[in-house]
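Collaborator request, handled under Task 6.
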Amino acid sequence: MPAPRSGAPSEAELLAYVRSVAADSALVSSLPLDPAGRTWIRLDGPGGCEAWLIGWPPGAGTGWHDHGGSYGAFVTAGGVLTEQWLAARLPTEGWKTLELADGIDRERRLAERDGRAFGPHHVHQVFNPGSGHAVSAHAYYPPLPMMRRYGRSGSLLRLEQVERPEEWE
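Structure tokens returned to the collaborator:
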């Protein structure tokens, strides 16, 4: 993976930042939780990154998506999250449907204080499989230019939507 631009936070720095956010019990407890949907607070991340604290009610999830070429990190601050991702670099342009090869699916359980960093071509979904709320801290650099949302049916992945920042701010 190429090094970030001079002055830009590295994946390791983003991971350290979200770990510090997840350890800030006053900040985590300030997040309003809604039993019907995800909630969030936008944070001031290091080096101009985009950062969020997100609350996940039971069963809430993101669906399959990428981060528009940004790299990032996230850490579970409370509860448990599950991440499923594709261990393959997908082309970002010029396709609407891809047939995925066997053996590229991955899954991990992220309990409190567990997290990960990821590169700019990461396609995943995150969800709360538990019976109580989960909370997580996220950071992305550069700030998200877009998010591509995908539908998945077996081995077929379909590009369904491209979201721009004004749609989630």
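The cover message to the collaborator said: "DSSP finds two helices and twelve strands in the chain. The mean pLDDT is 94. Please let us know whether this matches your experimental observations."
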